[in-house]
Amino acid sequence: MSSLFEKLGGEKSVDAAVDIFYRKVLQDERINDFFTDVDMDEQIQKQKAFLTFAFGGPNNYSGLNMKEAHVRLVAKGMNDSHVDVVVELLGGTLKELGVGDDLIGEVAAIAESVRDQVLGRA
Amino acid sequence: MDTFYFEGTQFTALKDETVLDCLLRKGVKVTNSCKSGICHSCILKSTSSLDDISQKGLNSSKKEAGFFLSCQQKVAPDLEVFMPDSSTLLAEGEITSQERVTESVVVLKIQTLKKFPFKAGQFTNIIREDGVCRSYSIASQTGDQELEFHIRKVPNGVLSNWLYDEELIGKKIQLSEPLGECCLNDEMDGQDLLLIGVGTGLAPLYGVLKDSISSGKMGAIKLFHGGLTVDSLYMVENLKAIDHKFDFFSYHPVFLKGEDKEGFLKGNLVDLIKNLNFDKKNTIVMICGDPLIVKNIKQSVFLSGVPSKSILSDPFVSHSSN
Fold first, then answer.
1. Do B295 and A27 touch (CB under 8 A)?
2. Residue A73 belongs to a domain with what CATH number?
3. Which residue of B53, B160, B254, B301 lies most exposed, with the fewest beta carbons within 10 A?
């Protein structure tokens, strides 16, 4: 039985997804205020790490640095509604890449698993 | 309170202080410039374990040898720090030409006195005798040993004013190892090139342009050079001549303020690029110069459909004086 990461196409699919996902993030007025000021190259690296994690791939992201990485954004007013948008855009990205609903559900569940850490509640 | 050792002497740091800030505060002379981990001019050496961030961007042999960026390393208890042997890190050069091309830009040529490997598009630190040091992009073609620099005199800029104002032919300076990723590589062969330079952001692109012409491996090349006024643009005649000579190359000087002038585009460079028609999937875009303009153009080019890996940039981060 292959892992979720393998089913999604591994690192290649992360590379394919990152540009689509980041374009969606930058253009979505509900959340782009948190992102338009940040250096693009750095963001792409971070988005890649996040997508690898959400795709069930090998990752170096612990809950603690998820929390630390978002402290500044939480202080700027980031809350559950913004996390909802990110999960939504993640689903939209995968749909565009032709991923089926069941796998999208698995990815969303992994992304959900760090919601509390991202928002500084755990 | 954390203490550490520099060349065997004990220093006590303030809370969260970096090694560089602590040494500077105590009057130790350490070459430095950007204080952002980009220019690598503040490299020191250590035998202790280091924070990952202070070795970010160093090659593996440097990492293993214990080199680190002192502006990024927080003081940790019992850290042992040394001055690196500058002869292993620096190359000497002699200023051979100094041409003031506008009221604030000087084109400087420096002959290197030992082999100085670099790729067109990279930058290096120019270090004066007294240790004052700033990063400048190399405008030469890969392999040249007479290095060209385009230097803009900035208000209160210690080094840029010196380089513009003084007569420096024959003067010796030092150069650090070249850095930066705004370069061509084999994977880009056959693609088109869109080069966008703001002010002296032309320099690295000029080197890349010369490389592309001599390799003949790139497709169509467009160069946009933006300045505030017509008079702030330089090398115009030179670039027009290259434009006439090669069908695959077009040169577009752009200015923001002043009366219309034939042969120049008037307008906002960011908007101009936003509305530019080019092959989004098959073009390498390089953007250099003012950090804010670079950031805006980068984002709009990316949103227009250019893959992130095809966008290279070199934002000219100013020297931090605090």
1. no
2. 1.10.490.10
3. B53
